[in-house]
Design a protein that fits this description.
Rossmann fold, about 25% helix, about 350 residues, Elongation Factor Tu (Ef-tu), domain 3, six-stranded antiparallel β-barrel, about 30% strand, 19 strands
Length: about 350
């Protein structure tokens, strides 16, 4: 099988490439250049896709004796991931750019090019597993990335390979060291890859500009002014610009964002609890929309936020009724539905949260 391996320059994708070679496949490595100024995208463990990362990926390819290329996807990444991220925050939402990158770049643009060039599959270093064509959680639940892959269609999964999903991260590092790969101890990337400073508010402010509004409590009393709703997310406690806690001495949290009126609502912790989620643009990894109510577990963040639920399909939307409330759920987040399975939790599908109530 001809396999294209997306090589980020990190330990996970490096071991994924090595395992594909061991399995006897005809392997080619590719590094995605996702920035027009790649030298600026890594500061220690922050950022990715830098010149340093491209160099690390090339050295691993040399050790594995496989062809290696760098493909420029910077324009597509800016349009489909960065611009989408900025626009979503401007609407008062809280998006996950890793979800969009997998959906629109790695398993859409990259996979399409790979198939057009005659490759049979795209392999990545994601921590997830495929069993019988179905997407499952990784063995290492602490590193599991099935959440950010839940937007993939059945056709995309048919051409995907996740070689390391059956192995804990610690063993992946040990394997890399045994293979003599220089990235064995390389730090994992953290935060948002295209914001290496980690200052999301400053990044958004430079692109959205000042859009002044107010911070109000449940009674509508104006507590403060702000420079834009992009500086806030549901559940946020710090950096609200208000003088202190509520009259009862308890901290206040962002409970709602109205981008049209530039109003940020704050309230108590209990005000963050929601029992029903409505999701748009659902994708079901089997390729078939389930009929009738579906008993499942729902996850609303890449790590954590998992509760039992019942999902109902409503003509192009998903309504998820939670068995117990969740806190701090925001429009723009991705909800992922899982079903318990002997092979590990199976991903049923996903949707983008439109409303949480």
């Amino acid at each position: 099988m001809r396999v294209l391996v997306a090589m980020s320059g990190g330990v996970d994708s490096s071991v994924a490439a090595a395992r594909m070679v061991d399995a006897g496949h005809d392997v080619t490595g590719v590094h995605l250049a996702l920035s027009s100024a790649p030298g600026t995208l890594r500061t220690g463990s922050r950022g990715c896709c830098s010149k340093e990362d491209a160099g690390d990926a090339r050295r691993v390819a040399d050790v594995l004796d496989i062809p290696f290329y760098v493909w420029d996807f910077a324009d597509r990444f800016k349009e489909d991931v960065i611009d989408d991220f900025v626009a979503s925050y401007a609407r008062g939402e809280t998006p996950n750019p890793c979800v969009r990158c997998n959906e629109r770049i790695k398993f859409s643009a990259l996979a399409a090019r790979a198939l057009a060039l005659g490759f049979d599959a795209l392999a990545t270093g994601h921590y997830a597993r495929l069993s019988g064509g179905r997407l499952h959680r990784a063995v290492d639940h602490d590193k599991d990335q099935s959440y950010v892959l839940a937007v993939l269609t059945a056709e995309q999964l048919r051409h995907a390979v996740f070689p390391i999903g059956d192995t804990p991260k610690s063993q992946i590092r040990e394997e890399a060291a045994r293979r003599g790969l220089s990235v064995a101890d390389k730090a994992d990337s953290h935060d948002i890859c295209f914001i290496p400073s980690g200052d999301t508010r400053a990044f958004l402010g430079a692109r959205i500009g000042v859009r002044r509004g107010t911070v109000v409590d449940a009674a509508g009393t104006v507590l403060a002014e702000h420079d834009g709703v992009h500086g806030f997310t549901i559940g946020q406690r710090k950096g609200l610009g208000i003088p202190g806690p509520g009259p009862d001495g308890r901290p206040r949290y962002v409970t709602g964002i109205d981008a049209d009126t530039a109003t940020v609502h704050v309230g108590e912790l209990a005000d963050l609890e929601v029992g029903t989620l409505l999701g748009d643009s659902p994708v079901f990894t089997s390729g078939v929309t389930p009929s009738g109510p579906v008993e499942c577990a729902v996850q609303v963040r890449a790590h954590g936020g998992v509760v039992d639920a019942v999902a109902h399909m409503r003509s192009g939307t998903v309504e998820v009724v939670l068995r117990q409330p969740l806190r701090g759920v925001a429009p723009g987040q991705t909800l992922v539905l899982y079903r318990p399975d002997p092979d590990g939790d199976e991903v049923l599908g996903s949707a983008t949260i439109r409303e949480a109530r």
